[in-house]
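Deliverable D5.2: sample structural annotation.
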Amino acid sequence: MILVTGASGTLGSVLVPLLAARGERVRALSRRGRDGSVGSCEWVVGDLTDGTGLDEALAGVDVIVHAASNTRKQGKGDTVAAWHLIEAAKRGGRRPHLLYISIVGVDRHPLKYYRTKYEVEQAIEGSGLPFTILRTTQWFQLLDMFLGLAAKSPVVPMPELPFQPLDAAEAAERLAELAVGEPLGRAEDLGGPELLGTRELARSWLAATGKHRLLVPAPLPGKVGAAFRAGWHNAPERRVGKATWAEFLAAEYGR
């Protein structure tokens, strides 16, 4: 049995049906009630923020894919949520394989959200559970969301930063492989196939969506800006992904 946290999120919503289609028994954790079971997938209610429902959710589980994260609030509460999950996973002498999805560069990047992801990594590494941590570069779907938010203004400040976007579906494919394998500790990083600047990403997104916005050069100051310019969030030596940004835009917007 594989338990997936964050089952209704960007990654989880792809991963859960993928695992089920491969014949795996899947339990999807949600804070809100869903219909109990669909095929080999069972939805259960639990809350990582306070640990309620986790003992029931973890009963009979061999593998946990921890994909839940508070992205809207820069990872607020993620470390506490991870500890609740770890403590529940270990109760009764259980030792499930804990698989965590992280981000390239979190061990040295000063962005608050990245530092929180690294704290969660460290909690998992010190948990005593068999574990695998997979770091990926930024997903198309999140860049699409960020650009959509930025485009609410007719003038969009845009620093020039390098990104290596990846399809979340490809991250889900790799997680599905890891979930049925032996714990690896740190798995090899997973990066997208191309390095693109933010202005190129934004211009192609605007063309695909048919929006007209003025992109204005803008600096990103401080240590965070320096880290992004240095590309610490990228893995150019691990261009494993196949889908390109242009292909994602064409599929998403039909242009």
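Annotation notes: The longest strand covers residues 97-103. The chain has nine helices and twelve strands.
The annotation will be released with the project's public dataset once the embargo ends.
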